């Protein structure tokens, strides 16, 4: 297949205090997130002047990727400027017919995968006539370019006797059940990545736990939460924790608030030594990975990967379906 552009697809984040509530309303529209949760998360953003680091991180990633590709690069978000529809309109005006897209999510699940396909469909419909076609790059949870930066991060702070704890964004258990072609692929991929990172760092024992739970309390989400897990570890006599947020590709707000602030505070209260491993960000191996993933699609380059779960280029229709939303 030949493509005439590369498109980075991401979540988006506010870039000032006035953006916070409109951004959060975009994220949560029709998703049954309680108002109190919304207001609490708005406070997290306000601690950073209403600016999420995610947009700057995506600009940096795009700048690093551009010289590694033979294609013009573009960037469009789900929830904030530059919105995907505006980007697709600009691409059409630049003469782009068919783009290869990379979402800033390594894993399966509605939020991390199918929802990006829906974003693309909606944005193309909004642009209408001449809107570029967009294909999406496969999950990369087991690509060495994603795994190795975490391995180095763990090694850099490892102390014998510490507990290695991997974290990822919690999702509703129903969303995990319908993730991937046979279900539960979100948790399966995360376990695979965790095992690969732990093995690379030479650590035998590790845990996979969850962070950043949203949604109403009566809806079950993946557990345990990192904070509850720290309590359990401390009660069991553990004295040091190394936390590796393998659910994310950059140190955005879910990392710098939910881990560096909340979980670090919990650890301090419990007398636990706490080290948090960086995400890949613009690590040269991660940047090279993106070029390799594009080459898989354009030149039929072999897939470089270290896991064994199946991966695929195009998602089948039943994969990661949108959650059934009850109207109340
Ligand atoms: C799986 C997953 C990822 C990882 C994959 C990926 O990266 O895509 C992720 C990433 C992110 N989540 C982010 C922010 C938020 N997520 C929310 C809410 C939700 N996340 C969900 C899932 C995920 N989210 C879900 C199922 C919801 C419930 C609402 C719904 O069904 O959609 C809310 C609403 C308020 C609240 O937290 O309740 C916010 C503000 C940011 C931006 C951070 C920044 O600004 O720096 C990023 C990268
Ligand atoms: Fe989220």
TrEMBL record:
Localization, UniProt: Cytoplasm
PROSITE patterns to which the protein is assigned, alphabetical: FERROCHELATASE
The keyword Metal-binding is annotated on this UniProt entry: yes
Binding site for Fe(2+): 169, 254
Alphabetically ordered keywords of this record: Cytoplasm, Heme biosynthesis, Iron, Lyase, Metal-binding, Porphyrin biosynthesis
GO BP, sorted A to Z: heme biosynthetic process
Pathway terms, separated by semicolons: Porphyrin-containing compound metabolism; protoheme biosynthesis
Main location: cytoplasm
Binding residues annotated for Fe-coproporphyrin III, in chain numbering: 52, 116
This protein's record includes keyword Iron: yes
Gene Ontology terms, MF aspect: ferrochelatase activity; metal ion binding
One Pfam family this sequence matches: Ferrochelatase
Catalytic activity, reaction form: Fe-coproporphyrin III + 2 H(+) = coproporphyrin III + Fe(2+)
GO cellular component: cytoplasm
Record's function text: Involved in coproporphyrin-dependent heme b biosynthesis. Catalyzes the insertion of ferrous iron into coproporphyrin III to form Fe-coproporphyrin III.
Family under the similarity heading: Belongs to the ferrochelatase family.
This protein's name: Coproporphyrin III ferrochelatase
Gene: hemH
């Amino acid at each position: 297949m030949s493509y005439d552009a590369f498109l980075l697809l991401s979540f988006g984040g506010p870039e000032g205090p006035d953006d916070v509530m409109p951004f959060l309303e975009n994220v949560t529209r029709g998703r049954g997130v309680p108002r109190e949760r919304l207001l609490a998360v708005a406070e997290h953003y306000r601690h950073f002047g209403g600016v999420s680091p995610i947009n700057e991180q995506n600009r940096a990633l795009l700048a690093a990727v551009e010289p590694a590709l033979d294609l013009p690069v573009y960037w469009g978000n789900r929830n904030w400027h530059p919105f995907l529809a505006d980007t697709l309109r600009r691409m059409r005006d630049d003469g782009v017919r068919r783009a290869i897209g990379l979402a800033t999510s390594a894993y399966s699940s509605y939020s991390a995968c199918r929802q990006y396909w829906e974003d693309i469909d909606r944005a193309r419909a909004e642009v209408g006539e001449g809107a570029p076609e967009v294909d999406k790059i496969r999950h990369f949870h087991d690509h060495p370019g994603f795994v190795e930066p975490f391995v180095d991060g763990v090694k850099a702070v490892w102390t014998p006797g510490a507990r290695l704890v991997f974290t990822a964004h919690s999702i509703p258990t129903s969303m995990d059940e319908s993730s991937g072609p046979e279900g539960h692929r979100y948790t399966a991929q995360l376990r695979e990545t965790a095992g690969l990172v732990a093995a690379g760092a030479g650590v035998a024992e590790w845990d996979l736990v969850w962070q950043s739970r949203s949604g109403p309390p009566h809806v079950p989400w993946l557990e345990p939460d990192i904070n509850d897990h720290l309590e359990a570890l401390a009660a069991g006599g553990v004295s040091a924790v190394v936390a590796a947020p393998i659910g994310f590709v950059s140190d955005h707000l879910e990392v710098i608030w939910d881990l560096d602030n909340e979980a670090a505070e919990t650890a301090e209260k419990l007398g636990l030594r706490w080290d948090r491993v960086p995400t890949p960000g613009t690590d040269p191996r991660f940047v090279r990975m993106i070029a390799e993933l594009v080459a898989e699609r354009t030149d039929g380059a072999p897939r470089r990967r270290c896991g064994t779960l199946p991966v695929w280029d195009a998602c089948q229709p039943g994969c990661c379906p949108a959650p059934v939303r009850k109207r109340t």
